[in-house]
């Protein structure tokens, strides 16, 4: 995924499913470097992880 698509997903009112290593995640923010994003797994867990946006996949 590229930075522009991450921004589109963040600003969209739609529920767009994004996968990271096969797990469905919410994107919390695109980080300042434009190459990483802070995400958390959908569900009751709120642990946030910084990942390379190239590893995110739109389902």
From TrEMBL:
The UniProt entry, under InterPro entries, shows: SASP_SspH
State any GO CC term: endospore-forming forespore
Superkingdom of source:
Bacteria
Keyword Transcription present in the record's keywords: the answer is no
Localization recorded for this chain is: Spore core
Identify the keywords attached in UniProt to this record, alphabetized: Sporulation
Main location per the UniProt record:
other
What upregulates it? Expressed only in the forespore compartment of sporulating cells.
Annotated GO biological process: asexual sporulation; sporulation resulting in formation of a cellular spore
Q: Which HAMAP family match?
A: SspH
- What family does this chain come from, according to its entry? Belongs to the SspH family.
Name recorded for this polypeptide: Small, acid-soluble spore protein H
The protein's organism comes out as Aeribacillus pallidus
Lineage, opening ranks: Bacteria, Bacillati, Bacillota, Bacilli, Bacillales
